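Work Package 4 report. The design task specified in the project plan requires that, given a folded chain encoded as structure tokens, an amino acid be chosen for each position. We show below one input record used in the internal validation round.
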């Protein structure tokens, strides 16, 4: 087994977190926002560096982390059910136990750390909405997008490493691709290899799209949409692969393979237009 991939450039995650926080504070001041209240897991991760275990959607929402970022450049507050996932530079008194914002009794603990002035939120539960009645509340997307739109050097390096691991891991999957192989087998091989190469997590399951050489070759549902198998059942069919990023960064990539194909169809761009029938 080959060990983790080696890279030729440094990666400083603590510096990346500092620069992200500084970009958020600058955007808050530019948009006259005094505090960000973030409930979305990706936004909390961006603002604080806090990581949480992967979970199904219901559990992830029930036990989601919450972050409060203030425009005075102070360290963020984070409420989390997984305190071990908080970055080491956060002060102990800024890492709080998780809160249930879907219940009235969970909201007061969050209100205790909120400053006065304008609040920007990315999501609102009904109890939180009621508790903030009378406060100046705006959408956080303007601030968060302004901070995220330009990547730092360390963010770019995370993306580069994630895609390098993706591309290296997919080589193993390509070798096992054959009629009869199931998508779950391809997924298992891809994820195992990605972690062997140094991945630290995966947030979206790989998707394997099995396709016939022409759309008319596949079966259809009652509504005449194409019913595509998740198993490589027929020689000559193709597989498109889409997989989420790894190595602390989201990076989607795609591959297209044809197995045992006798002929490859190519449709010119000018032939693709609204209203044209599929072949």
């Amino acid at each position: 087994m080959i060990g983790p991939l080696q890279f030729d450039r440094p990666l400083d995650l603590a510096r990346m977190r500092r620069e992200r926080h500084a970009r958020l504070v600058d955007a808050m001041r530019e948009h006259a926002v005094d505090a960000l209240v973030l409930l979305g897991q990706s936004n909390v991760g961006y603002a604080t560096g806090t990581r949480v275990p992967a979970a199904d959607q219901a559990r992830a929402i029930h036990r989601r982390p919450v972050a409060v970022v203030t425009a005075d450049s102070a360290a963020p507050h984070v409420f989390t059910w997984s305190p071990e996932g908080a970055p080491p530079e956060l002060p102990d008194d800024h890492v709080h136990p998780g809160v249930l914002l879907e219940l009235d009794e969970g909201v007061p603990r969050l209100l205790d750390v909120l400053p006065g002035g304008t609040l920007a939120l990315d999501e609102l539960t009904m109890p939180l909405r009621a508790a903030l009645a009378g406060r100046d509340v705006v959408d956080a997307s303007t601030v968060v997008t302004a901070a995220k739109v330009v990547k730092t050097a360390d963010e770019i390096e995370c993306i580069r490493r994630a895609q390098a691991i993706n591309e290296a891991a997919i080589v193993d999957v390509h070798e096992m691709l054959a009629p009869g192989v199931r998508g779950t087998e391809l997924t298992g091989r891809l994820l195992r290899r990605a972690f062997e190469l140094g991945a630290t997590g995966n947030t979206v399951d790989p998707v394997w799209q099995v396709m016939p050489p022409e759309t008319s070759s596949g079966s259809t549902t009652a509504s005449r949409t194409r019913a595509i198998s998740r198993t490589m059942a027929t020689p000559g069919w193709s597989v498109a692969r889409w997989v989420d990023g790894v190595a602390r960064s989201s990076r989607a990539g795609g591959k297209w393979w044809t197995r045992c194909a006798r002929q490859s169809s190519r449709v010119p761009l000018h032939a693709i237009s609204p209203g044209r029938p599929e072949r």
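The chain has a mean pLDDT of 81. Validation will be extended to a larger panel in the next phase.
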